[in-house]
Amino acid sequence: MDALLxxxxxxxxxxxxxxxxxxxxxxxxxxxxxxxxxxxxxxxLGAFCAVTMQRILTLSYEVVDETRTDxxxxxxxxxxxxxxxxxxxxxxxxxxxxxxxxSLLMAVPVMIFVGFAMERGLxxxxxxxxxxxQILVTFGLAIVLQEIIKYFYGANPIPTPAPDAFAGSFxxxxxxxxxxxxxxxxxxxxxxxxxxxxxIGGVFAFLQFTTFGMVVRxxxxxxxxVGLLGIDIDRRFTIMFAIAAVVAGLAGVMYAxxxxxxxxxxxxxxxxxxxxVVVGGMGSLPGAVAAGFVLGILESFASMAEVxxxxxxxxxxxxxxxxxxxxxxxxxxxxxxxxxxxx
Length: 343
What we know:
Elements (H helix, E strand, L loop, with lengths): L1 H31 L6 H19 L2 E10 L5 E7 H16 L1 H23 L9 H23 L15 E3 H4 L8 E3 H23 L1 H11 L1 H6 L4 H23 L9 H16 L4 H18 L2 H6 L3 H16 L14
Antiparallel strand pairs: 1-2, 3-4
Helix pairs in contact: 1-7, 1-10, 1-11, 1-12, 2-4, 2-5, 2-10, 2-11, 4-10, 7-8, 7-10, 8-10, 11-12, 11-14, 12-14
Protein name: Branched-chain amino acid ABC transporter permease
Family: Belongs to the binding-protein-dependent transport system permease family. LivHM subfamily.
Keywords: Amino-acid transport, Cell membrane, Membrane, Transmembrane, Transmembrane helix, Transport
């Protein structure tokens, strides 16, 4: 039982990332009809917002520390972050420690700008083009973005720690009355899971209960009729593209302490997340979210030592096997809508 619970927990953080990226992909496809293969790059850009904020907050200057000496007896030169000199060691150190959550404030305007620039500068020219053209151009854009990140940040992963308050692990075993230490789960992964739930809930509430969201949902169902009512549906869809970019960016920010950011992390998640979208059903927001969590947990179970020993390599292909089975039995996916991607 403890092994099963642990695998479920292990699948939640990756499933959360899949669900958030797939949610953004589905938002863009459902509103604009565009298959955006650059969406994983937006996830990567969010992670590097956290890296950038960490570097900004740790900018320092050199001072001589008379209380410390080297092996020759000379005073040591130490680097003092500007934030600590401005706000003091306690407050300044706390600000640096909370660099990842603080970077959420930076990521929102950055991702809005990137989303608007992508949609207005490139994507809008491919609305009426075949999906193959959309995939090629957005895939090319993703490669350009990751090469830019590689140029400025290098090819190696960059450790981006979570705040010290979440550095430990939670003992689920003791909480559930099992042996203490039998189920240990990092605090930050729990934070990421609940953060993902909050973002997903916020997006669904926005679409369901606001006038803007209702118009967008109407436009997803019948774009021409909404346009005939005098509503600028194109402008609203552009805003939805920016919102999808923000969702992907925030997911990347909070995932940075779990998986050290690197220039190809967006591409790693994109392919799997696109499979998640297909399994959930193209254009189905609930399907994308549900499939993200389910496939994340299945991948976790497939990574168990006992399973890998019996079926070597199954953890690398389990998601694709599930996708094949689902599409053979339900070609539209779990919750796909009729007519989507069937032309």
